[in-house]
Structures are given as C-alpha cells and as structure tokens.
Amino acid sequence: MSVTPTAPQGAVNPWQMALQQLDSVAERLKLEPPIHEKLRHPKRTLIVSIPTMMDDGSEKVFTGYRVQHSLDRGPAKGGIRYHPDVDLDEVKALAMWMTWKCAVVDIPYGGAKGGVTCDPKQMSRSELERMTRRFTSELIPIIGPEKDIPAPDVNTNAQVMAWIMDTYSVNVGYSVPGVVTGKPVSIGGSRGREEATGRGVMITAREMARHWGMGLDGARVVLQGFGNVGRHAALFLQNECGCRIIAVSDSKGGIYNPRGLNVEELIRLTRAGGMVPTYPDGDRITNKELLELECDLLIPAALENQITSANAPNIRAKVIVEGANGPTTPEADLILRDKGILVVPDILANAGGVTVSYFEWVQGRDAYFWTLQEVNQRLERIMKNACDEVWATYEREQVDMRTAAYMVGVARVAEAIRTRGIYP
Ligand code: GLU
Fold first, then answer.
1. How many Å apart are CA 178 and CA 261, to the nearest integer?
2. What's 196-349's CATH class?
3. Alpha helices (H) along 179-276
C-alpha cells in the first residue's frame, strides 16, 4: 500500500481503508453484490492541471482533483482541500466518507471531495486566488447547485469559496451563490457555518457521553489540530459543557497544562499567525506525546492516519471523538475496541459542518435567511437524532460505533440505489 512520505508509523492508504470499512459493513448488512460493487467505485473522477502564474512571474502547474463518489441521494457534496499530501486515493476516500456522512445525518446529498496538491503556507494570497480561480474554471463542467457543491476543508475557507462562487458566476453570466457553501455571509453564506463542525463535535461528544453514562463537567479534553474544527470544538466544550482543555496542538507540536489552557488566548495567538507550541502557559509536547496523554476525551481534529496500530496500544483516553476525517486506521479500531475505548466516528462526529452547509443551500434556494439561533436549533435536532439512531444501532447490533454509524449510513444509500434501480 502506498502512503505519503510524511505519514506516521502504521499509516495505511486511505482509499484501502475506506474500502475495508465498506466491505465489512456490506457483509453485515448482507448488501446485494451489485449494490456493494457499485459503492466500491466513485461515480466520477476528474483530474486537472492548474497552470498558475506565481508572483515572481514564473508559472507552476498544480494538480487538482474532484471525485464524486455517489449521487444516489442527491447532488454530490464535499469540501476542497489544499495540502502537499493530497493525492487521488486520499480524495477518493474523503469523497466516499462524505457519502456516508450525509446519509448518517439524513441530508439529501451524495458525497464528493476535491483537492489540490500544493503547499498553501508557502503561497501568497494572490497566488492562492489565481490557483483557485483556474481550478474552478476547470471544474465548471461538473459542479453546480444541482450537481456538486464544494465547501471548505483543510486549508480552505470562506474567502476561497467566494473566489469559486465569483469565478463560476462570471463564467455563466449571473450570480450563482448555491454553487458552494461555507461562503461569507455577505454573499449568501449561512450564519453559524464557520463554527458548525466544531459545534457538531461538541454535540456528538455530549450526546454520546450521556448515553455512555459519563458526565462532561470537568472532563479533561485533549485536542489534536487547532484549525477551524479544533478551535471551535475547544471553545464549545469548555464554555457549554464545562470541560477542561488540557492539551492542544497544531502541525508544529503541542502544549500541555493539566490545570487547563486558556482557549480564548490560544485562539487569539493562532489567529494572529502564532503557532500553538509558542503559547507560554504550559509544557511543550510533540503530537505523538499529545495523542498518548491520559484524558477523558481525545479529539483528533487534523488529518487522516493519526491513530494507527503503532500508537493505539498507548492511547489513554476514555472516549475518542473524530473531528478529522479518517484519523483512525482499521487496525487501530480493533485495538481501541479491545481496550474498551469508545470511538465516535468521523462520519457522525464531524457532520455538523455539512449539515449547516445544507442549511446554507436551503436558505439560498428560498432566498430567506435564518437567525443564528434558528441555525443552531436545527443543527442540534439533526445531530441529536443521528446520535440517538447510531447509539440504538450500536446497542442492538453489539458492534463498535463506527460499524453502527456505517450500518445506518450505508443502508440509506443502498436503499436509494435499490429504489432507483441500476440503469439500463
Ligand atoms: N469539508 C467538510 C467535511 O469534511 C464539510 C463539507 C461540506 O460542508 O460540504 O465534512
């Protein structure tokens, strides 16, 4: 199996991992072989070259991908990431995970993902804008509000969505806000979208801890990744559930303070461009050490392949809530299950983002926008229902929680395919 050169020990190819997860649940659900086989293949894959003028006058050609895994339940939906490790297998896996994610929270979308292999931290704002606009123009034939709707992911944000929306709109000749979600509010974005993934992580942690019989007041939280997901999850867990955030990290390393970190100060520091390990009030630790700290909640909110067969035996969390997509390998899942650690899987735990993306799309279609309170109430309801459903499956089927979430999500997609039939 090929893995990226920077991948941690025990890492596995994400596409192989996604297939393995699907295969094991297909067997449990006794899926008809043609439906299973269809789901093992992405519906549509586009690879494009993105010639981009750099600030020094040279031209660089980046490679971009968009994979639509399934359109069985509605338009394809999923983010676009900018990262040096992006490759086709990663994007295929992330697209498949989006299909299950949308199905598990029962929003009417299929799954997609996009990515560009680049290092956005080494690029200027104008280089990023030119690359984004050229990538968008290459995507025009396959994206659109009824076809495939991109959104932010790792290293992309509302500004990148605004460039995509503008490029698409200028090319078709009128404004099409519904072509992306996660836009700025000034051009049709939804209130609450930016913090939605973090809010969803908090809701799933709270709901699953309640089912599990664990109180969150005073619970010790360790967070890997302090991007959009990690920051908001930390804030909501601290302010709304009374948790103590004892360690956080970013790509440069982490900071640990058993008395609790000041999350607001950390957010100020990182928003101003500072790195987490430079925060003064705590001990510097590596990302490896952070994952192995003793805690109540461990929240990987960075990238895939963080909890692997190499470190799973050393994990000392009671519950893991996956803010990132694909942070735990299948081998690690087995080890964690044997250790009695509850893993709230990505396709449920981080579904708050795409849920508010759906709200954004719905509001745009109605041209009628909701208050933040309305957005949050509806997000609560959808996430809570999904948690209850996954918990009920987990108890009834006596499986781990990832399998339970997959059973709910995959069964919904399979039912859509069964009902529509396979053409011709
Ligand atoms: N990139 C996010 C995810 O992985 C959000 C996708 C969306 O809003 O479409 O769930």
1. 39
2. alpha beta
3. 193-212, 228-241, 263-271
Q: What does the DSSP 8-state code read for residue 185?
A: G
- pLDDT digits 0-9 by tens, 330-348: 999 999 999 999 999 999 9
Q: To 5 degrees, how large is the angle CA 83–CA 176–CA 130?
A: 35
Catalytic residue at 113?
yes
Q: Ligand 1 center to residue 330 CA distance, Å?
A: 22
Q: What's the rounded mean pLDDT across residues 257-286?
A: 97
pTM of the model: 0.97
Domain edges within the chain: 38-177, 196-349
Ligand 1 midpoint to CA 153 (Å) = 6
Give the tokens for residue 16: 């192989």
Highest CATH level, class, for 38-177: alpha beta
Query: What is the Cα–Cα distance from 285 to 223, expressed in whole angstroms?
Result: 13
Which of 43, 77, 101, 113 is an active site residue?
113
For ligand 1, whether the C-beta of 353 sits within 6 Å is yes
DSSP string, 256-304: E-TT---HHHHHHHHHTT--GGG-SSSEEE-HHHHHTSEEEEEEE-S-S
